[in-house]
């Protein structure tokens, strides 16, 4: 009969397994970070203050991501005929009469946006029929725009209409390509230099690039700095999520993840108000960037991740942050219960021996499988979400109201997701939200356009579900990757998401080939990625994995020896009298 005895000291934990008075194994048990975090109160005032500090910059993120709905809007326009007026050709004709003789009308009775008659057709004033073939030419002297909704947009500033119409929508793609590139940059440097320092870099560079883009004198200049803005904003997105999750205990990760994502919905709703009040594209960019100034001022209060510090061998610094956390959370006995040397027993990795890169995501079987599946899920989530978000016309509602409703539906969706994540788990929630989003898109595909009220309700429901899938995937991915690869893993996943987001505006251009083609593509992506999510492991109430070895051992299903302080030791001991681990 084998008996295992567990001995605990403040600096180390040991287990002796004895059979017939012979010691079969002596195992030094490494501590888990959660055990130390519990000693500080893993969900107290310190964690709440951290989430609130990170809440402010996260409000600016959705404003930049979805601002293209407003700054790239194309108002009604027609050829500029003021030069003909200066030549005295029109005489005393009214403005409507001048348009009648100068610009052909479209099927809906509105003036053509891109063409004008090669010479004035004065006979049209007497309602006589025009010749079957009237010579028309492209606009010769620019365009006149309807400024009743927008004072200025990218389209009116740089004449992105007619044959250049695609450039207005391409500005969103350029921004997301920048975000996509930023995920690689910040993913590597955050794991190497820490979360806190790179967060400041992201704050400052986002402000600088945004302001410069607002004062661009050419479209090329705007596109370049819009790319850099997206590049810089990526750090805020990924670092704020990781910092929040790494400082909170296991049972409150869902609450923190969902509450933090409320900042996206709040910022999204505020964007509708900002855009309604500020109708000049330059001032709108500056307005939505202003929260980052406050975020930079309060950056000094944001702590470094103690989990990252320990994983990188900076035990003394980690202990100082943990002391501050314990003091703030009124755990006065922390220093007596946990000594600095105890942190050296936390499961970690020697970064001096191995420097982790994105290649480590693909080197081992389980990490490779995890990387492939999370990439597909993130691509599907982002492509579907932005495919719906950028389509805010054609529902019988105003531009601002539609955007606001799209944003407001996200709040109840997040609240429901909080209960779903805890009750049914991450995997089922991720799968269900994606598949149901695809079903909503499918319903709209087969529903006739004249039932616009029903279509609007279904679209809003689909938008809520797509946001729920986004909220889930951020928390889910953070829990799936180990600490040593968490920022790289989230960076890669975010890269795939931005790839999907950057292609979404281009997919919408396919409606010129077949009106329903973009919806068919988004529907397929949502359902397929939802089914892939079912293949991922469940992480509800599970410890965060620390090393790649932890990920590889997850599939081996070892039996765990659990103590009162929740230190888990695999009971897979070799039967040898002199074996020491």
TrEMBL record:
Membrane topology note: Multi-pass membrane protein
Domain of life: Eukaryota
Keyword Nuclease assigned: no
Transmembrane segments: 167-188, 200-222, 228-248, 255-277, 283-302, 370-388, 400-421, 433-454, 516-536
Listed PROSITE patterns: MFS
Domain Major facilitator superfamily (MFS) profile: 119-541
Record-linked Pfam families: Sugar_tr
Main location (coarse class): membrane
Record-level GO cellular component terms: basal plasma membrane
Protein name in UniProt: Solute carrier family 22 member 6
Species: Cyprinus carpio
């Amino acid at each position: 009969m084998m008996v295992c005895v567990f001995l605990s000291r403040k600096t180390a934990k040991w287990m002796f397994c004895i059979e017939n008075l012979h010691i079969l194994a002596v195992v030094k048990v490494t501590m888990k970070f959660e055990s130390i975090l519990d000693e500080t109160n893993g969900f107290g005032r310190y964690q709440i203050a951290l989430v609130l500090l990170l809440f402010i910059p996260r409000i600016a993120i959705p404003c930049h991501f979805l601002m293209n709905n407003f700054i790239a809007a194309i108002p009604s326009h027609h050829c500029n005929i003021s030069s003909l007026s200066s030549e005295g050709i029109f005489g005393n004709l009214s403005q409507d009469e001048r348009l009648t003789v100068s610009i052909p009308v479209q099927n809906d009775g509105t003036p053509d946006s891109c063409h004008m008659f090669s010479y004035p057709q004065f006979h049209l004033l007497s309602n006589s029929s025009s010749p079957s073939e009237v010579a028309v030419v492209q606009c010769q002297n620019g365009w006149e725009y309807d400024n009743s909704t927008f004072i200025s947009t990218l389209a009116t500033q740089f004449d992105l209409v007619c044959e250049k119409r695609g450039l207005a929508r391409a500005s969103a793609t350029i921004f997301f390509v920048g975000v996509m590139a930023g995920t690689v940059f910040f993913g590597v440097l955050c794991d190497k230099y820490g979360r806190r320092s790179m967060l400041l870099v992201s704050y400052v560079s986002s402000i600088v690039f945004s302001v410069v883009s607002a004062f661009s004198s050419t479209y090329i200049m705007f596109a370049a700095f819009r790319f850099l803005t997206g590049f810089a904003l990526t750090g805020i997105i990924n670092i704020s999520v990781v910092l929040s999750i790494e400082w909170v205990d296991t049972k409150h990760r869902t609450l923190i993840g969902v509450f933090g994502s409320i900042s996206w919905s709040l910022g999204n709703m505020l964007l509708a108000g900002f855009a309604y009040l500020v109708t000049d594209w330059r001032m709108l960019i500056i307005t939505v960037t202003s929260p980052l100034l406050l975020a930079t001022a309060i950056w000094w209060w944001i702590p470094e991740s103690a989990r990252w510090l320990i994983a990188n061998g900076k035990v003394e610094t980690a202990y100082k942050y943990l002391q501050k956390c314990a003091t703030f959370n009124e755990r006065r006995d922390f220093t007596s219960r946990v000594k600095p040397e105890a942190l050296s027993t936390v499961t970690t990795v020697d970064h001096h021996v191995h420097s982790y890169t994105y290649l480590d995501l693909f080197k081992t079987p389980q990490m490779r499988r995890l990387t492939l599946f999370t990439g597909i899920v993130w691509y599907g989530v982002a492509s579907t979400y932005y495919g719906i978000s950028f389509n805010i016309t054609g529902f019988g509602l105003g531009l601002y109201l539609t955007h606001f409703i799209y944003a407001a539906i996200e709040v109840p969706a997040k609240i429901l997701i909080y209960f779903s994540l805890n009750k049914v788990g991450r995997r089922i929630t991720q799968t269900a939200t994606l598949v149901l989003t695809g079903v909503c898109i499918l319903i709209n595909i087969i529903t006739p356009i004249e039932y616009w009220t029903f279509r609007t309700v279904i679209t809003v429901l689909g938008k809520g579900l797509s946001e729920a899938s986004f909220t889930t995937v951020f928390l889910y991915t953070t829990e799936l990757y180990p600490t040593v690869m968490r920022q790289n893993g989230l960076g890669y996943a975010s890269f795939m998401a931005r790839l999907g987001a950057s292609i979404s505006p281009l997919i919408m251009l396919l409606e010129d080939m077949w009106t329903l083609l973009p919806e068919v593509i988004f529907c397929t992506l949502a359902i397929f990625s939802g089914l892939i999510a079912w293949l991922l492991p469940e992480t509800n109430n599970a410890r965060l994995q620390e090393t790649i070895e932890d990920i590889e051992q997850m599939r081996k299903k070892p039996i765990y020896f659990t103590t009162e302080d929740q230190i888990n030791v695999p009971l897979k001991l070799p039967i040898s009298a002199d074996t020491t681990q």
